[in-house]
Amino acid sequence: MTTMQHEFTADRQVERKRAWSNWATGMLFLLPSLLLFGVFLFYPMVRTVYLSLFLTDSQGVPIVFVGWENFLNLFQSTSFQISAKATALFVLYTVPAGIVLATALAILANQKLRGIGLFRTMFSATMGMSVAASSVIWMFLFNPSIGLFNRILAALNISGVQWLLDPQYALLSVSIATIWMNTGFAFLILLGGLQNIDQSLYESARIAGVSESCKLRKITLPMLSPTLFFVTTVSLINAFQTFGQIDLLTKGGPMESTNVIVYSIYKDAFINYNVGSASAQAVLLFVTVLVVTVLQFKIGERKVHYQ
Amino acid sequence: MTLTVSGLVMVFPILYAFLISFMQGGEVLQGSLWPETFSLANYVSAFERVPLLTYLWNSLLVSVLIMAGQLILCSLAAFAFVFTEFKGREWIFYLFISTMMIPWEATMVPNFQTVQSLGWLNSYAGLTIPFFAMAFGTFLLRQQFKTIPKELYEASQIAGISKLRFFTGVVLPVAKTTITTLAIYSFLTAWNMYLWPLLVTNNEANRTVQIGLKQMQTQEIASDWGVVMAGVVMVILPTLILLFAGQKRLQEGLTQGALK
Amino acid sequence: MKKLWIGSTAMALLLAACTSETEEAVQTTDATAAPAEDTGKTEVVFWHAMSGELETALNTLVDDFNASQEEYEVEPVFQGTYEEALTKLNTVAGTDESPAMMQVFEVGTKFMIDSGHIQPVQDFIDEEGFDTSIWEENITNYYSVDGVQYSMPFNSSTPVLIYNKDAFEAAGLDPEKSPMTYSELKEAAAALTEGEQKGFSILNYGWFFEELVAAQGGLFVDAENGREGQATEAVFNGEEGLNVFNLIKDMHDEGTFYNSGQNWDDMRAAFQSGATAMILDSSAGVKGMIDNAPFEVGVGYLPVPDDAERNGVIIGGASLWMADDIEAEQKQGAWEFMKYASSAEAQAQWHVDTGYFAINPAAYEEQIVVDQWAEYPQLKVTVDQLKETQANAATGGALISVFPEARQRVVNAMESLYQGADPQEALDQAAEETNRALEVDAAKNGN
Question: Where is the signal peptide (chain C) (predicted)?
Answer without folding.
Answer: 1-22
